[in-house]
Design brief:
Blueprint lengths: L2 H13 L2 E7 L4 H17 L4 E4 L18 H5 L2 E5 L7 E2 L7 E6 L10 E4 L6 H10 L7 H5 L5 H4 L2 E2 L2 E2 L7
Parallel strand pairs: 1-2, 1-3, 3-5, 5-6
Antiparallel strand pairs: 1-4, 7-8
Length: about 170
């Protein structure tokens, strides 16, 4: 079901040397966990890429991981991936003029603001869509990503010592 859009997104991730991952203001564990897990997955798959997770930190979720600061020069040459955000004015971080942009969201459609928009409001979370992206491409997901604080509790159960579950639609 997701293979075509996932392959398109993967090709863009592969193409760009610099990738910025943003999410909504007032982040929750789904937004932050998805953002940090996607960053780690991209870096695990492509260790030479520059990948930035941007936005204002949320002190109560500091345990999830650290965020990066970027300037406009970095943004101008980067692929921007916006997670868990249905409209542009809710994006947290510098997103002024990316080279190319992708939105991955599980909320109902509000507005178009990226070059590619993958919206599935039947998904339970942004984390589920990030997992779909990983499972439908050559992005890597290892045990440290799956069971770390990077993924929200609703999807942590996916990792099993002998592999990953394919069926997780009802998290």
């Amino acid at each position: 079901m997701y293979k075509k859009v996932c392959k398109k997104i993967y090709k863009l991730i592969k193409k760009y040397d610099s990738i910025v991952i943003a999410r909504h203001v007032g982040p929750d564990p789904d937004a932050l966990g998805s953002q940090l897990a996607l960053k780690e997955s991209i870096l695990t798959t492509f260790p030479n890429k520059k990948v930035y997770a941007v936005g204002h930190p949320a002190s109560r979720f500091k345990y999830l991981g650290d965020l990066d600061g970027i300037d406009e020069e970095i943004m101008n040459k980067s692929l921007l991936i916006v997670l868990d955000t249905p409209n542009k004015n809710r994006v947290d971080g510098l997103i002024s003029s990316p080279a190319y942009s992708i939105k991955i969201d599980h909320h109902p459609y509000v507005e178009e603001f990226c070059n590619i928009e993958w919206i599935d409001d039947s998904s339970c979370s942004a984390a589920q869509l990030v997992l779909e992206l990983i499972f439908n491409t050559d992005l890597k997901l290892n045990s440290s990503i799956a069971v770390s604080h990077s993924f929200p509790n609703c999807v942590k159960y996916l990792y099993r010592p002998n592999g990953f579950c394919d069926y997780y639609r009802n998290c």
